Amino acid sequence: MSENKDPHVAGSGDSGAGEVKFVYDFTEGNKDLKDLLGGKGANLAEMTNLGLPVPPGFTITTEACKTYLDSGEEPAALRDEVGAHLQALEAGMGKTLGQADDPLLVSVRSGAKFSMPGMMDTVLNIGLSDKSVQGLARQSGDDRFAWDSYRRLIQMFGKTVLGVDGELFEDALEAAKVAKKVSVDTELEAADLKKLVTKFKRIVKTEAGRDFPQDPREQMDLAIHAVFDSWNTDRAKLYRRQERIPHDLGTAVNVCSMVFGNLGPDSGTGVAFTRDPASGHQGVYGDYLQNAQGEDVVAGIRNTVALAELESIDKKSYDQLMRIMETLENHYKDLCDIEFTIERGQLWMLQTRVGKRTAGAAFRIATQLVDQGLIDEAEALQRVTGAQLAQLMFPRFDDQAKVEQIGRGIAASPGAAVGKAVFDSYTAIKWSRSGEKVILIRRETNPDDLDGMIAAEGILTSRGGKTSHAAVVARGMGKTCVCGAEELEVDTKRRRMTAPGGVVIEEGDVVSIDGSTGKVYLGEVPVVPSPVVEYFEGRMHAGADDADELVAAVHRIMAYADRVRRLRVRANADNAEDALRARRFGAQGIGLCRTEHMFLGDRRELVERLILADTDAEREESLKELLPLQKRDFIELFEAMDGLPVTIRLLDPPLHEFLPDVTELSVRVALAESRGDANENDLRLLQAVHRLHEQNPMLGLRGVRLGLVIPGLFTMQVRAIAEAAAERRNAKGDPRAEVMIPLVGTVQELEIVRDEADRVIAEVQETTGVELKLAIGTMIELPRAALTAGQIAEAAEFFSFGTNDLTQTVWGFSRDDVEASFFTAYLEKGIFGVSPFETIDRDGVGSLVRSAVKAGRATRPDLKLGVCGEHGGDPESVHFFHEVGLDYVSCSPFRIPVARLEAGRAASTSKGSDHR
Ligand code: ADP
Ligand code: MG
Ligand code: MG
Questions:
Q1: Is 469 annotated in the active site?
Q2: CA 806 – CA 782 distance, rounded (Å)
Q3: Which top EC class is given (predicted)?
C-alpha cells in the first residue's frame, strides 16, 4: 500500500490509540483503500466523502476477516468495535437496530478487493423480527411493505446465512401466488405475506434445526460470520485459483442502513452506466424497476423499464441522478456503473465502481476522456489492453444482419465462425475434406476430438467452462469456440441439438457462432472484416472523413504506444508476402524466418536425395540444386524488408519430416515386391526412413545437430543468404541479414558452425566484391543453453529466446501431447492459471531467460536480445520481456499491433503507475 499513514492503526477513539482498527465508518475510508475495505466499501466511502447521498454505514476490514479465518474466531476487539460503530450509526439515524416501535434496518454485504462470484449474497432488512415488523408497519403506514420486507429477510437469511435450500422458499412463495390466483409478488397483500412469514419460519426451523433469530444483533453477527466464511467456499477458491487472485486477501463486510425501494410506486431501484458500455457514448443507460428492492432487478421477477423513463416517473430524482453520474465520471475519470434506490422520492446511492466495457468502447472511452481533458495519453494507454485490441482484430458478424439467436455460452476463443452442424469428429473430418465448412458440436470434447477440431471452422459445446478441453485446445489453435452453452441440448447419438423454444438443429443445418460474445445463431450470419485490420492494412485511413470513430481511437493510442515503447517489434515471417503484411502492421524487421518451408513442395525431392546421398558427389549435387532456390527466396525477403533486420534460422526440424510417411512407403514397397518389380529408390528411401525414425523427434536429430551431421547443409544455406545479400546490395538495396543457429546446447556446436559460416561469407565477399556484415547468433531454447549463456555469448552476436521449445524442455512436456490430453485437468486443478505456452511461466522458464540475459550481456555488453516464441505476441509475456530488458519481441504478423501496444503499456507502467 502506498499511503504514508498506516490505515490499520486507529488515530484515536473507539479502539484506543495504536491498536489495529477493524471497522471504518463510510466517512473514514476512500477509494484507494480497496485492499482493506474491499471494492464496494472503498467506493461507498468515496461517494460518502463526495457528499453524495449514501445511506450511512460502516465497513469491517479484510484484516478482521483474515484473523477470523486464520484462528476460527473473530478478533477480540471486533465485537466492541462493531458495537461502537453501530451505536454511532443508531445515534445518527435516531433509532436502534431492530427497535420495536421504529426499527433501524441494515444490509450486510460482502465485498472483496476484486469482485468475485462465489462470495456470499447480500442480506437485506436485518433487524426485523416478530416485534419490529409491527413497528415498521406503523412507521411506514404500510402493512404490506413491512411484511414483505420481513419475508424477504427470512428468505435471504435462511438461504445465505443458515444454508437452507432456497427453492423451498421460492416454492412456498409460488404456492401463495397460486392460491391467491395472482402472477406477481406485488399483488400479494399483507395478510398473505404474514402467512408466508409463518411458513418461512417453519422452513427455517425444520431445515436449519433452529429458530430464525429474533435478536437483531445476533442476526447481524451471524450474517457477518457468514460473509467471512464465504471467502473459503469451493466456488470462491476455484475462481481465485483460475484468476490468480491470492487466497490470503480476505473479504470485507459492509453494514449499510436500509433504504426502501419497495415502499410503493414512488419508490424503486435501478442500475445505471455513466456511458454506454458498448459504444462509449455518453447518454442515459440503465434499467429501473418501480416498487422493488435491489435483488428484484437481478432476479428478473418483473420487467424493468429503460432508465430514461425515470424522467417521466420522478423528474426530480432523475435530474439528481444525472448530476451525480456526471460528478462520478469526473471524479473517477472513467465510465462508472451504479446501483441506486429511490425511497418515496428520495434518491440513494448504493454502489459504484469503474464499469466493465466492450473492447471497442475501451478504446473510444479512453480517447473521449483525453478529449474531455480528464486523463492524459499515458493514462489512456493504460485504459486499454492488448487482449482488447486482439478482439477488435477478428472478423465479426455484421451487426446490421438479421439474426436468430438460439443460445449463448461462454466466449472461450474469439472469432466468428459459420458452418454446417456436425456432431462427431469423424463427420467433421469427412465433410471438411470434401470442402464443406463445419461447426463441431459436442457436449464436451476430449482428446479423441482433436482431428475433428482441427477440421472444423469452430467448436460449440454445451458443457464446460473457460478451462474445459474444448476451450483450451481451441485457444491453442486460435480457433473460434463457444463452450458451456447449457441451454442447448446436444444429442450426439441422434445427431441433433435442441434449443430453448424447441428449435431443432439437425446435422447439416448451418449455424453461426461468435467466440467473442458466446452467442449462437441459427443459419448463416454474414461476416464482415474488422475495420481495425482494414486500418492496419492501410486500406482505411484514420484521418479520413468516413473513418470510424473506433479506428481513429485505435490510431491515436497506437501512435502513443509507439512513441513511448522501448521494445522493438519484429515479425515471424517466412516469405515476402507475410513480410510485407508484417511491415504494414508495423514490424521493425523479421525476428524469425523459418527455412524449413522452403524445403517442401517440389523441393522435397531434392531434400530426399540429399538425405539418401551415399557419396559426397551425390550430396553436393543436390545441395547445388537447392542453392539457387534458397537464394531466390532470400532475395525476395530482403527486398520486402529492405533496411530492416531479417533473422534467418537455419534448418531446424527433424529430417524425417521431409521424408514420406513410413507406413505408406512400406505398403508401396511391399506391394511392389509382391509384384516382383521392387523400385530401387523406394527401397533406399524406406531404409533411410527407418534409420531416421526417432522415438522423440523433438529431442532427436534436429537444429544445429543436422548442420553438424549433414556436411554442406548449413554452409549451403549461409551461402544462399550471403549471395542474396550481395545481390541486393548490388541492386542498391539495404539487406540486413542475421544468421540464426537453432537448438544450440553448448558453445562448441556454435563455434564449429560459426567458423564454417565465416569462411563461406568471406568467400562470397571475395567473389562478389561486396562487403557483407552478417550477424551470426543463436537461439536460446534449451535449458543448457540458458545455463551456459555466458559462454555461448562468446560466439553469438545475438540471442533469440525460443520460448516454445524452452517451455517444452524446461517443463519436460511436448505441447502437442499435453495440451490435448491433460492440460484441462491441470488448469482445473489450478496448477497453473493459464497454459505456459500462452503466457510465459515467469518463475520457471522466465527465470532462465532472466539469468541468460544477464550472463549473455556480462560476456558481450552489446549482445542483441530478442524472443521469437509465440510468447512474443502475448500481452503478459511482452511485459515480462520488457522487464528483463530484451531489445525486441518477434511474433506472427497478425499479433504485431498487440505487441506494439503492450510494449508501450509496459514502458509507461514501469514509470511507476499501477498494473491494471
Ligand atoms: P452485489 O455485490 O451482488 O451487487 P450488493 O451488496 O450490492 O450485492 O446488494 C445486492 C442488492 O441489494 C443490490 O441491488 C443493492 O443495491 C441492494 N442493497 C444493498 N444494500 C442495500 C441497502 N442498504 N438498502 C437498499 N438496498 C440495498
Ligand atoms: Mg451490487
Ligand atoms: Mg525451436
A1: yes
A2: 5
A3: transferase
